[in-house]
Amino acid sequence: MHPRLVISNFQLFSMMLLFLFGSATIVSIGQEARQSAWIAVLVGMLIYLPFFALVTLLYKKHPEATFPTILKIAFGKHLGRIICMLYVLYFIYIGARVLRDFCELLLLTSMNHTPLVIVGAIMMAVIAYACFLEVEPIARASVLLLFVFISFIVLGFLLLFFSDVMNPDRMQPILGEGIDSIFKAVFPLILTFPFGEMVVFLMFNQFVKGERSLRKMGTRAVVIGGVMLSMLSLISLTTLGQHLVGSSTIPLIVTVQQVNIGDIIQRMDMLAISVLIIGGFAKVTIFAYAAIVGVKEIYQTNSHKLLIFLIAISILTTTVFMSDNSIKHLDIGLKVVPVWIHIPMQFVIPIVTLLILQLKSRKKNRST
Predict the structure, then answer these.
(1) Which of 201, 197, 222, 207 is nearest to 58 (CA)?
(2) For residue 287, which of 201, 179, 183 has the smallest C-alpha distance?
(3) Which helix (H) or strand (E) holds 218?
(4) Interval 291-330: pLDDT, tens
């Protein structure tokens, strides 16, 4: 571990924003609200904002501490280590799910005759190399990748606009399914995916300038990411209509396929695939590096190369064997994982930890 490593606020913001886009650009989130899916994304963003600010209070009394250290302070040495290991396993598993998303994307679009394990191994090798370079190069690369990501998004929007395929009437009826459909879309899916997954950045407090940077940059990333994800949902809806969005495996790719300017500029599938791969690479890298940081803290080791190898193999193995097919993979990811894995790790444990720290702090103040 290099405790003196520091990344700038903008680099942290870039990492967070790319992370939020990640696999959320593959799955059309909020489809329970149908034409109001874009509103559901905004509602989920607004509900998550105060929770993120609350979670960063974990570092208020211990601004220089790492997240595993906070867990040990709250739960004791042994139980704190167990909970930290649960987070390491959580990061490995969710990182593997994201990697599987992008393997399925490549198999569906451009590498359909390639074995899943080969596609996953190639992507994981690049991610492992990024982790080997440590957090500073990852943060610097995130700034560049974010610029490319947003440039591609803007270019795609302009191409769709000049192709004259966007029809605002396809937004109707707004709230046609009622307000209940908004909250069904938000709880638990949108709240836990992608916003709740920001809990991974609790592992990065040691690399930034205190908890205020974490809170400030996280808030900005959640707001901007939420607005942009809502806009992407709106663009797909006005281009394809609700029926096609709901039935498409990857709506963003189908949306970009509608580009046709003078029968010359068309079939811009690779633009969408590039956007998706950038987000996926950033998200899996952050999960993998957070897992490495967690294991280092638990075992107090500096065996960086060995840990990278073990974490990379763990993520790849989980990716390959987690489900038999893409349909089962998506079904588990959208119905089982949010309730039984995301909510405990993203909400229950951080809130309980914060409450215990507050009680211990009050008890200490009374005794003094």
Answers:
(1) 201
(2) 201
(3) helix 211-240
(4) 999 999 998 888 889 999 999 999 999 999 998 888 888 8
Residue 321 to residues 100, 130, 143, 208: CA-CA distances in angstroms? 10, 24, 33, 36
Which stretch of DSSP H or E encloses residue 147? helix 135-162
Query: Quick one: pLDDT at residue 5?
Result: 64
pLDDT confidence of residue 1: 42
User: What's at 285, amino acid-wise?
Assistant: T
Using DSSP, state whether 4 is helix, strand or coil. Answer: coil
What is the chain's mean pLDDT, rounded? 91
Distances (CA, A) of 132 to 87, 91, 98: 21, 17, 20
Q: How many residues appear in the chain?
A: 368
In the three-class reduction of DSSP (H, G, I as helix; E, B as strand; rest coil), residue 265 is classed as: strand
Measured at the CA of 221, the angle between CA 171 and CA 340, to 5 degrees, comes to: 80
Which segments within the chain are labelled E, that is strand?
Answer: 260-261, 265-266
Q: Which amino acid is at 92?
A: I
Q: Is the pTM of this model over 0.90?
A: yes
Q: What gap in Å lies between CA 13 and CA 306, rounded to an integer?
A: 29
**What count of Cα atoms within 13 Å lies in the side-chain half-sphere of residue 40?**
32
In terms of Cβ atoms closer than 10 Å to its own Cβ (0-12, 13-18, 19+), residue 61 is: middle
Are 335 and 188 spatial neighbours (Cβ–Cβ below 8 Å)?
A: no
Confidence band of 286 (pLDDT split at 50, 70, 90): very high
Tokens of 40: 């559901």
